[in-house]
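Fold this complex.
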Amino acid sequence: MSGDRVFLRRRFSAMKRRETQDRELKHVAEWRNWSGSVVAQASAIEKPRTEAELQRLVAAARKVRVAGAGHSFMPICATDGLLLSLLDLEVALEVAEDRRTVWVPAGWPIGKLTDALWALGFSLINQGDINKQAIAGAVSTATHGTGRTLGSLATAAEGFRLVLADGSVVECDREREPDLFQAARVSLGMLGVVTRIKLKVLPAYRLKETLWRQSLASALAEWDQLADSHRHIEFFHFPYSEHVNMKTLDVVEAGDSPDPGEFEDTVFQAVCDLVTVWPRTAPTLQRMLTRAIRGSERAGPAGRIFPSERNVKFEEMEYEIPAANGPAALKEAMNLVRDKRWPIIFPFEFRTVAADDIWLSPMSGTACVSISFHQYAKMDWKTPFAGVEKVFQAAGGRPHWAKRHTLTSADVLRLYPDAPKFGAVRKRIDPGGKFLNDHLSELFAFSL
Ligand SMILES: Cc1cc2nc3c(=O)[nH]c(=O)nc-3n(C[C@H](O)[C@H](O)[C@H](O)COP(=O)(O)OP(=O)(O)OC[C@H]3O[C@@H](n4cnc5c(N)ncnc54)[C@H](O)[C@@H]3O)c2cc1C
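Structure:
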């Protein structure tokens, strides 16, 4: 080939590359997560209505991520490629013949799902603090509630329908494509776009919530006995207070309380803003908040009692810690906050989660307590998170994938004995890394 022709061919390829880049840049769409700490410039944001449209979009794209409700604090949805939302995807809710499992639309917010399930006579086995997440987003990150005998939402998943990188569709469960199923149970969206999830459910049930205040010392001393005698239990502990706000949920036959108002959120927002300008008030305000949260009871359909409103924006780190190490880890983290005089205004949240057998679950093989550490989104969270993360790691903890952590690929391999199995499936299913972004490519470098 003559030098001129090589030159022309290179010019032509460069022009084509620029054209493609220009086309993508023209469609740059900004995306932010719930707390505002993750910002992505996607080449396009699409909301397909049909599976066929979704297949075409995935097959044609260079890079793809799916966002549920964007409630993750780590950049696990971020992409400079195509960002998908499944909110408008038309998928049927389908109850299995045995009435123990239901195929659910993966993009539905949990609140929409629990309302639809209630109307059909079902409830989810367990739920977390809020019900805004897409069910696929929650399952993909091992989102959990609390309860000594209860696992994360991912443990309820019995099957997945996925659109893969080439646009093909596959269904997997314990019999069909069992390795893909095991990997998909907690996958951070690295295998493909989940369009339907087969979830284990329970006959519809009501819950009674009971709140009370007690000393931190007695809460930790009685923790085992309390956790054994309530279906769900957790406490909130403001680190400058000597008390905790305890919360339990138990199954009841009847009862319907009115929805709580938004008064507390408005007051809390004002308190957070006050601490932002006057950090030294944090300890006093924390003690006041602990006292202000009064004992109370309410009851109703499980899907309505599990979630709370979380309107004040925060940043969060959470580690799942072997249960026996939990109380000591909490006390050490509390003492660190006090020693450093960090102006934290949010409480620690202390929960319990059952062990499971999911390759990438932080509860894999270990019954855990879950300790969450929050900071008001407008204040410095990096310094206190760095300090407390060391405490949680020394206690043998593994982080919630969706919440702030600083793990490396080597840490993932050290902490997760089954990570290589996940890596092998990821590499087989998406060898070109269409579903990876920068953060996930680094964290799962062993699977490239
Ligand atoms: C106010 C608040 C309260 C919270 N409470 C709890 C709690 O009680 N317990 C707890 O464990 N966590 C909690 N979290 C964390 C939250 O549950 C997780 O971040 C969860 O992943 C968010 O769901 P999402 O729909 O917003 O997912 P996103 O953040 O949008 O996505 C999470 C992951 O799922 C992937 N994904 C989403 N949809 C699909 C799909 N259809 N196919 C393939 N991949 C997909 C994304 O690519 C990403 O990797 C809370 C977060 C906030 C902000």
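The chain is about 35% helix and 25% strand.
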